[in-house]
Amino acid sequence: MIKIILSLIDIKVFKFLFIGGFCALLTLALMYFLTSILLINYLISAVITILVTNYIGFFLNKVFTFQTDKKLFWRELWKYYGVMLSSNMINLCIIYTLVDIIRIWYLYANMISIVALTPVNYLLHKYWSFKKKS
C-alpha cells in the first residue's frame, strides 16, 4: 500500500522542498549575519542572500531534483534566473510590506515570503526552467 502511495507522489517535490529548505536556512543565516551582525539594511541583505543562494539552488535542483542533461545548462540557467528574478522581486515587496508596514521582524517576514512563493517556484521550475523536451 505504501509503495502505491509513494508511486503516486512525485519525489521531485520532496527533493525540491529539501533543497529549498537548505537554501532557506542558508538565506536566513546569511541575512541574520548581514543585518544583525554587520548592520546592513535588511533589504540590501535580502538582495545579497538572493545572489548567493540562487546559484546554489539552481545547481542542486539541476543535478539532484530534475536531473537534466549537462548540455542544457545555459538554457536552464537563463530560465531559472528568469523565474527567480520575478520571484525575488515579489519576495522583496512582501518583505518590505511585512517589515515596514505591518512591523513583523525581518526574518519572520522572509520566512513567510519563502513559504508563500515555494509552490509557484516549484511549478515554474518543473514545467519551464527544467522541462525536458518531449
UniProtKB/TrEMBL annotation:
GO terms for cellular component: plasma membrane. Its main location: membrane. Keywords: Membrane, Transmembrane, Transmembrane helix. InterPro entries: GtrA_CellWall_Glycosyl, GtrA_DPMS_TM. It is found in: Membrane. Residues 15-130 form the GtrA/DPMS transmembrane domain. It comes from the Bacteria. GO terms for biological process: polysaccharide biosynthetic process. It is a multi-pass membrane protein. The chain crosses the membrane at residues 12-33, 39-60, 80-99, 105-124. Belongs to the GtrA family. This is GtrA family protein. It comes from Cyanobacterium stanieri (strain ATCC 29140 / PCC 7202).
